[in-house]
Amino acid sequence: MHQKQSDFPCGAVRQAGVSLTGLILVLALLGMAAVLALKLVPVYTEYSAVKDAIERAKEAGGTTREMQVAFDKNAGINSVTAISGRDLSITRDGGEPQVSFAYEKRVPLVGNVSLLIDFAGSTDPGAVDAGSP
Question: Cβ–Cβ contacts within 10 Å for residue 84, how many?
Answer without folding.
Answer: 15
